[in-house]
TrEMBL record:
Name of one Pfam family that matches: SPL
Gene3D superfamilies: 3.40.50.12110, 3.80.30.30
Signal peptide: none
Name of this chain's protein: Radical SAM protein
Molecular-function annotations in GO: 4 iron, 4 sulfur cluster binding; DNA photolyase activity; S-adenosyl-L-methionine binding
Classification lineage: Bacteria, Pseudomonadati, Pseudomonadota, Alphaproteobacteria, Acetobacterales
GO cellular component, one term: endospore-forming forespore
InterPro entries associated with the record: SPL
Length: 253
């Protein structure tokens, strides 16, 4: 089963500072090649923001994460630390908490200064309060979650950020683990990466009847196929079953 066509924004806003990072410039090149309208902003403050929900959900901005935004935060109980590759998601899950968690219009902000974001992580080795210091979970190492405010796989064909992060953890010769949760299935570019078993991918699954509430996300069989592919490629995997929905037809396929 081929992966679902990947999401592309109608418009991509990019700041001058983001364009100075090779990673940001590469995102713009990929978006332009996919037919997205590119808007080069005159200053680093985000402007030309869309007024409607529909326009915002089809807009992506490539920006530089400020020092406060790129500083990892404790994220108990799921992992030691959270860091962000991006904020926002192109899917339309009706129960998604992002709508109430992120300020401003629901555009996707992808961070161009990935080297600076990843440079924040090494000093945190062994410093977390969830897995680092737990006798029962010490084998998981220091854990870093990167899907708190986005589904990073949803935008990976444009950002390439997950691949960089997976390589970074694969080369980090220490007890660490990158982890993310996804509803998307564009895993093919991740399969051959030198992940070193240090990235754990969890797929968000539910009864098929829940698909009606998950607009824009790949259907369950595609997620299962993607789960199988990454497991065969040696990634540690997991499943998230949430939210629990009172669906009368939950057994139907
Ligand atoms: S895929 Fe995840 S992050 Fe994206 S809208 Fe759905 S619940 Fe929210």
């Amino acid at each position: 089963m081929p992966a679902a066509p990947f999401w592309t924004p109608k418009r991509l806003l990019v700041t001058p500072a983001a364009l100075r990072f090779d990673h940001g410039a590469a995102m713009v090149e990929r978006a332009a090649a996919a037919g997205t309208e590119i808007v080069r902003l005159p200053a680093d403050r985000l402007s030309a923001l869309p007024a409607t929900y529909r326009d915002a959900k089809t807009t992506m901005a490539v920006v530089v994460a400020s020092p406060s935004r790129r500083r990892p935060q404790p994220i108990p109980p799921s992992a030691d630390w959270r860091f962000d590759l991006a904020e926002g998601c192109p899917a339309h899950c009706q129960y998604c908490y992002l709508a109430g968690s992120l300020a401003g219009p629901p555009i996707i902000r992808a961070y161009a200064n990935l080297p600076e974001i990843l440079a924040e992580l090494p000093p945190l080795l062994g410093q977390g309060s969830v897995t680092s210091r737990s006798k029962a979970r010490r084998d998981e190492g220091t854990t870093f979650e990167c899907s708190c405010y986005t589904d990073p796989l949803a935008i990976e064909p444009l950002t390439g950020s997950l691949a960089v992060a997976i390589r970074h953890f694969g080369a980090w010769n220490a007890p660490v683990q990158l982890r993310f949760t996804t509803k998307f299935d564009a895993v093919a570019p991740l399969l051959g990466l030198p992940h070193g078993g240090r990235t754990r991918i969890r797929f968000s699954l539910n009864a098929r009847a829940a698909e009606q509430y998950e607009g824009g996300a790949p259907r369950m069989p595609r997620r299962l196929q993607a789960l199988r592919s990454v497991a065969q490629a040696g990634y540690p995997v997991g499943i998230t079953l949430a939210p629990i929905l009172p669906l009368v037809n939950w057994r139907e396929c």
